[in-house]
Design a protein that fits this description.
Elements (H helix, E strand, L loop, with lengths): L4 E6 L11 E7 L3 E8 L5 E8 L4 H6 L10 E6 L4 E5 L8 H6 L7 E7 L4 E7 L1 H10 L4 E4 H9 L7 E8 L2 E8 L2 E9 L3 H15 L7 E6 L6 H9 L2 E4 L21 H4 L4
Parallel strand pairs: 2-5, 5-9, 10-13, 13-14
Antiparallel strand pairs: 1-4, 2-3, 3-4, 6-8, 7-8, 10-11, 11-12
Helix pairs in contact: 5-6
């Protein structure tokens, strides 16, 4: 059985005997599985592994010896699942499913994350197969949607003017936009082509009255400088640049081959 191709990076300081000082951070989706290990004392990123999932995530976990270590703490983020923001004054746990059903197909498990930074809750849904993986292999891990970490982090950036953050992963474009320090928009779009990517971006900007000549755009995720997606966006948006890693973390030279704008949600779990 093929379990998927791994892309791993190990810092020279990584020591399995220090695992109780480490935090295990996992990113989990239907077709995504990656993790990193962070030294909680030094904020050094010690290990990273990203898998191209061709078959069974459970088989990947079962054959990975690093994941069998005894970590001091652990966390899991769920990536690319339907979600929606609900203001705190309207949020009720018992209404979460009904709210989600207005905009997306709903799996059998409904969860929510409080976001005090914007006085809202992120309501989202995951299938039981994903929940079962966490329960079986990471039972003590804190659990949140990746989008919750992204909104939390983006809200801390300089957002006095018009700012938009495009996060691309597995054919999903997530757009988070701020204006004068306030969250304007957070939504995801499935896309197949570079033209789709551009269309959804410009459509959202038009609806939000964000001027492509003045809005500041940062790119994160699965987009590479100079690729067709980047080139097309660059043609239509004046102020566009790639994001960087969470600045509280330390990355050794072994991580230089990993673009700084990738896996931002994964690394943000250490906060």
């Amino acid at each position: 059985m093929e379990t998927g191709k791994a892309n791993s990076i190990q810092a020279s300081t990584f020591n399995i005997d220090l695992s109780e000082q480490y935090q295990l951070c996992v990113q989990l989706g239907l077709k995504e599985f990656s993790y990193c290990i962070i030294n909680s004392s030094t904020n050094n990123v010690e290990y990273f592994n990203d898998f191209t999932v061709n078959d069974d995530i459970i088989a990947i976990i079962n054959t990975d010896e690093i994941l069998k270590l005894n970590f001091g703490s652990s966390s899991v983020i769920f990536t690319n699942f339907p979600c929606t923001l609900v203001p705190n004054e309207l949020f009720k746990v018992e209404n979460s499913k009904e709210i989600l059903e207005l905009s997306a197909a709903v799996y059998d498990i409904i969860k929510s994350d409080p976001l005090p930074e914007i006085d809202a809750h992120l309501v989202y849904t995951i299938p039981s197969v994903i929940s079962d993986i966490v329960f079986t292999f990471f039972p003590n891990a804190t659990q949140k949607a990746e989008q919750s970490y992204l909104i939390k982090q983006f809200s801390k950036f300089e957002n006095k003017n018009q700012n938009a953050y495009l996060y691309i992963s597995e054919g999903i474009l997530n757009i988070t936009a701020f204006k004068n320090g306030k969250l304007l928009f957070n939504n995801g779009f499935s896309f197949d082509t570079k033209e789709d990517l551009l269309y959804f971006t410009l459509f959202a900007f038009e609806q939000l009255k964000l001027d492509t000549e003045t809005v500041n755009v940062k790119l994160f995720g699965e987009i590479i400088k100079g690729d067709e997606n980047h080139q097309l966006l660059y043609e239509y948006i004046r102020n566009i640049e790639f994001g960087s890693r969470p600045n509280h973390l330390n990355f050794s030279s072994e991580f230089n081959k990993l673009p700084e704008h990738q896996f931002y949600g994964l690394f943000s779990q250490s906060l």
